[in-house]
Amino acid sequence: MRLITNKKFFLSSVLLVLCLFVYDYLVIESISDSIKKYYYEEYLRILLYFSISVAVSSGVLIFFNNVIFEKWLKKIISWYLPFAAIITSTGSEGSFINPGKDDLALFFSWLLLGVTLLFILVQKFYFKVK
To answer: C or N terminus of the chain, fewer CB within 10 Å?
Structure first.
């Protein structure tokens, strides 16, 4: 028996994105500007980028079977999200040589989508997973 399927994962990631948007609209708008800037730029926007990329990637995986989804969870997500979170957390204020946390989060979000599409193509056409 599977604990998580691609539809459940997609719905939970979309729900997370919606909760972050509601949190941003209701809570962040009501606090002062200095606290708002700190929390929004440091945490909420980075979490939003990662959750949107996971939601889009899992949305693409809905059109494929659960075998590809389970391999994606085990081979891509299990190492990718912790690695991306660690590298993103080491970002600085941002400059040309040393990118900021926002830039790193956006880069890793797009990279996840690219790696997911490449993984699907390899699994579907090279390994012939049905």
So the answer is: N
Question: How does the average pLDDT of the chain come out, rounded?
Answer: 86
Give residue 12's region: left, alpha or beta (phi > 0; psi -120 to 50).
alpha
Name which of 71, 72, 111 is nearest 88 in CA terms: 111
> At 4, phi and psi to the nearest 5?
-135, 135
The two three-digit tokens of residue 9, written as one number: 């994962």
> Which residues of the chain, if any, have pLDDT below 70?
1-2, 28-29, 32, 35-37, 39, 41, 94
Can you tell me the distance from the alpha carbon of 33 to that of 35, in angstroms, rounded to the nearest whole number? Answer: 6
The string of DSSP letters for 14-80 reads: HHHHHHHHHHHHHTGGGS-HHHHHHHIIIIIHHHHHHHHHHHHHHHHHTTS-HHHHHHHIIIIIHHH
What's the gap between Cα 33 and its chain centre? 27
Distance CA(40)–CA(28), nearest Å, equals 8
Phi, psi torsion values for 92, nearest 5 degrees: -105, -155
